[in-house]
Hints:
Residues 1-27 form the signal peptide. The chain is α+β, with helices and mostly antiparallel strands and 453 residues long.
Amino acid sequence: MLKKKLTFLICITLCLTWLGTTSTTHAASTAITVTTDYLNVRKGPGLDYGVLTTLNKGGVYLVLKEEGEWTQIQLKNNETGWVANYLVNKNEGESPSQTSSAERQNQEINSSDTGRVTANSLNFRAAPSLNADIVGKLYQGTHVNILSQRDDWVEIQYGGQTGWISVEYIQLPEEENHIETNVQTPEDTTLTILHNGTNIRKTPNTQSTILQRANKGETFRAIRFENDWYEIQLPDGQTGYVANWVVSDQSEQMTQSTSSEENNSEASNNDLSQYLKNKKIVIDPGHGGKDGGTTGTRGTLEKELTLETARHLFDKLRAAGADVTLTRQRDKYLNLPYRVNVANEQNADAFISIHYDSTKDRSVRGLTTYFYYPWQKELAVNIHSAVIDETKMNDRGTRFGDYYVIRENNKKAVLIELGYLSNPTEELHVQSNQYQESAATGIYEGLGRYFKE
């Protein structure tokens, strides 16, 4: 009996010793420190899992468990995620509260602060990355609660949801304090439309219903101005809204030189839509489906941007009475012979292939238009010069280019590269609604000039 008791006590002692050792080992590795910028935190232990968020270098996080070459960590709001072991350092006995000063600085925004969205239309995402899922969409003038800031991204809360937006498109609290709400009642202000096919909308945002379209040179009386939009009087007695970047008012026109006034008058009197009516035009949004094209420094996919530009252009040409065809209307893969065949089947008067560029040198920026055959050059020159005029982008010229969709095309065909996604500043710029509108207008005007000659 005594022997059994001794055996039992020895077993208990060994178990307690083993548990103590295990507990000590776990406590000794309570945290990790991030050793690289923009570390992806994934939903599971592997590269096949989606990205939840990204972390900055120097951040310290609680370790929950390890699995192979991956570590599960505790994030804020009781969320968890997985990081690759080779991108973090294990901290023996260090608490996650010992966050680096750089990480604390990124978090030092009062949660009661609010900011105002300055972009016309802005996606907010599940993580500070353009690859992250879209949580929702915000419009210009929307006020949101600011939770934190991380480099070029701000974490916000709106409508019961949290997400991340680019700091470039939000007016932060310190900026808001120095700016009065821009609501004005213009006195006898007449607005002149700057672009053919300009949208007049029901409410002051780019997602609103289009009431009608106006052409360059048409004039409207301004009733009210608020946050970059004019409310205008329409001929049928209704009112509508037009963005301030597609019009000029009387005061702007008065300050222009005599030569500029003459040029504007000449342009206003020439409605290019008459030269586009019934023309068969094929718009080819580059890439699609499994072919994403290039990817920007912030994660922008070329295939998505080319389709957005193509849709803007399609609307403008259709409003002018052109017979317009898109080679693709959604995220779908098309081979190059198919794209060329669309031009042949439609007996196109013009084929426009839309792309965005990329290079290893991140300082390179600007716009380039390509042709293959000499008889395609005139179309390329007209489109290129018009887009440069509208967008004010760096002019990289009109060049010969050995690209399948123009080389194998027996129609008047050009390929235009509308900016460099490899340049971080240009990547943000070309995504804006203002740029998309200007680029589409430039191509529209270039086509009009070409068919006029």
